[in-house]
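[step 3/7] fold_predict: job queued, chain A
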Amino acid sequence: CGSCVRPSFAEGRLAVAVGFFLVLLSWLAPASGRVLDRRSSERMLRGVTVVARHGARGPNWAELGPFAEESDVVAQWGGKLGPASTAEEKAKADDNLSEAGRKQMRALGAMFRERFGVVGVVEWHSSTAKRCVASGMEFWKGFFLEKDPPKIQNGYDRDAAFKAWDAKDCAYKNFVDSMKRGDDVTFKAKALGVADFTERIWGKALGVREESVALRLYWCTYLCSLLECEAREPSKNALTSKLTADDAKEIRELARWIWERRFHRSGYQDFVGRALLELISSRSTTTTETPTPSEKFLFFRFMSCHDYSVMSALAAAGAETFEEVLGFGAYLLVEHYDDYDVWKLCRDPSSDGEEAPAEERVLEFHCEGFWKANLKVVKATEKHPFLRQLVDGSLAKKPFKEYVLQDSLYLVDFARALRLLADKAGNDAQATSLRGFADGADVAEKALHESFFKKWNIDDSNAEQKPYTLLYTAFMLQAVALDSFPAGLAALLPCFWVYGHVGALLLEERLTLKDAAVTIPPEYDEWIAMYGGEEFNHAVTRYRALVEHEARKATAEQRTIMANHFTRCTVLEFMFWRAPLDQVDWPDFERLSSTLTDGLSN
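[step 4/7] structure written:
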């Protein structure tokens, strides 16, 4: 059958493809072909990690520092610590989880128990800060219904994991100090830009004089935290009453900008968050390999820590921006499937510990970045003449037949690239998934193509890749064979994503045209139905999650290569559809020789 013949044919073309690629390496172009895994879209959930900020608390000594002792902002909290405060007083101040915070964390634990039920193994990791430990204790009370909590995991430097941002005598500490001093150029420019606002807030509204514009800006993080503390304690509103709603909104935005600068745009993302990121991504537990029938999955891991800890993990994972301030009890939920992780963020669970958590947002930092960087290409693809004519039925049969034939040939090498990646995968689950995608390309998509060939009475056994097809497959195979595993994954992502995106758009448009009684050849509708359908969308989602998982672990240099490969192959997708319309083919040297001979004789 064709599926038995083509792999050997593809191997015979590889040397030609590589040679052709080396000649044309500087100007790459297009292709198509995608994958559909017809098997169940359900993946096995192997574990869950929750990284949660502690519950509501009272202010710390730094946040009250700028205010005078007699200030009502300070007095409502029972005074403040100063330079002469004893170690015992400072330790007591660290144990500042409020009753509202305890209630909040118990509710969060109960919510996760209701959501995930009984699991195989539970683990508790925590910052050494007392409010974080206390938050964890309350969480487990809600999760276990007052039973004893698990022991806090040790055996590693907990401060390095959860409080690297608080390290002393290091380059990162010097960077933060440079922000406060105004030595950091970016921070100083921002401080000067909002100097009138910060002077009005600190001087006129709060009665605090500070000549340094940089320090006035940095202290907005303290105001933001104090406002949050008062919001959880209705009887305490000394600061809130001095500010307008617009003032409070501007303070939160400035605090968000400062934290984004400190964690996401400092250049120290790996330093502050790499250890925690590795802890989050780890699947090493004391679990058995297979869940018992009473277990939904293998492990549930809870980490009680700080908002700065969550920010650090997000920064190390590759989030380029910090979009919104994290409330008390905010959490990062990581679902560990057998071949990838899905990250979700809940920024503000509830105001009183009893309301349902706010909506969790799925995080895809790197894949989203790759896509947004190529929106011009994507938009041009959406308007491509081949696709426009396909959806309204005006596309001639000849270019469509040429496209399907080349796409079928492309799929052979695409499946091969997936299997090469499977051989380089970091674990068996990833390898199995990648081989499943390759099987989908071999079986599901090829079946559609071959049904067309049968209908058209076309023998494709001796067909060969034309220039644009070979250009794409040569680049794709080279990227997979010679570059890193994450880079190879990124090179294949446009094949999934662009087709899924275009297929969904065309399917929606076809429904509208059908309502208007616009008919098109049945082959065009079948093609649109496959790539715009739910099953293919599941395949795109799974593959994107796999790429995102590897991008989070990749180095900055590897991520740059991933982005470049994604861009190149997105362009190649566009060019692949262009080829059948332009009738791009290999030179006909017999005709050229005849033309040259006739020219010479004349």
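[step 5/7] annotate
The longest helix spans residues 485-515.
The chain is about 60% helix and 5% strand.
exit 0
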